[in-house]
């Protein structure tokens, strides 16, 4: 299971005990916010196929991809992965997609919409898990390539 991969990933940093496993589903932004008793805007992960390169963009839950900004950043139109492709290409199933312990070759980016928060709650590989991380921790442990500004619709 993907959550076991994420636990092993965080174990190397002595952080596996920070993973939260809930009885209820956290597979959508809204369900995660209810389960974690936090604002829905504090995390989501979006996966794309950029002309053969798999991209994972971690953004605020209230942000939406801005097609113009995306194309300027990545040089191609935003094409989200289909639900049936996500687990194979990213390494985590829909509902548990996170930037940790992803498949080799997945390019991880963090969107500027996250910088307004002190902590965020990315999933940990399953539809009922999360971890609370500071923004510097997210940046470090996601092994992101860089911060991008490819979203709209969020309030600063």
State the separation between the terminal residues, measured CA to CA.
36 Å
Strand arrangement, largest sheet? Answer: 2-3-5-9
Strand content: 15-25%
Q: How many β strands by DSSP?
A: 10
Overall SS class: alpha/beta
Total helix count? 5
Poorly predicted runs are none
Let me know the largest β-sheet.
4 strands, mixed
- Please, what is the average pLDDT? 93
Which series of helices and strands comes N to C?
HEHEEEHHEEEEHEE
The residue fraction in helices comes out at 25-40%
Shape call: globular
Radius of gyration: 14 Å
Could you walk me through the main structural features you see in this protein, from its secondary elements to its overall organization?
With 156 residues, the protein is α/β, with parallel strands linked by helices. 27% of the residues lie in helices and 23% in strands. It has helices at residues 2-11, 29-36, 67-74, 83-90, 135-142, and strands spanning 19-21, 44-50, 53-59, 64-65, 107-111, 119-120, 129-131, 133-134, 146-148, 151-152. The strands form four sheets. A four-stranded mixed β-sheet has the order 2-3-5-9, with helices on one face. A two-stranded antiparallel sheet has the order 1-7. The chain has a two-stranded antiparallel ribbon with strand order 4-10. The radius of gyration is 14 Å and the shape is globular. The N and C termini lie far apart (36 Å). The model has no long low-confidence stretch (mean pLDDT 93).
Descriptors:
about 160 residues, alpha/beta, four-stranded mixed β-sheet, two-stranded antiparallel sheet, about 25% helix, about 25% strand, globular
């Amino acid at each position: 299971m993907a959550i076991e991969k994420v636990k092993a990933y965080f174990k190397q940093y002595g952080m596996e005990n920070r993973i939260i496993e809930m009885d209820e589903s956290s597979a959508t932004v809204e369900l995660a916010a209810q389960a974690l008793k936090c604002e829905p805007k504090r995390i989501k992960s979006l996966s794309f196929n950029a002309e053969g390169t798999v991209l994972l963009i971690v953004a605020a839950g209230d942000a939406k991809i801005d097609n113009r900004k995306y194309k300027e950043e990545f040089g191609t139109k935003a094409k989200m992965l289909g639900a049936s492709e996500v687990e194979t290409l990213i390494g985590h199933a829909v509902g548990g997609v996170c930037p940790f312990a992803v498949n080799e070759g997945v390019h991880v980016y963090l969107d500027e919409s996250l910088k307004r928060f002190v902590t965020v709650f990315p999933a940990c590989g399953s539809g009922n898990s999360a971890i609370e991380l500071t923004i510097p921790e997210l940046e470090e442990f996601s092994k992101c390539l860089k911060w991008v500004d490819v979203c709209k619709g969020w309030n600063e």
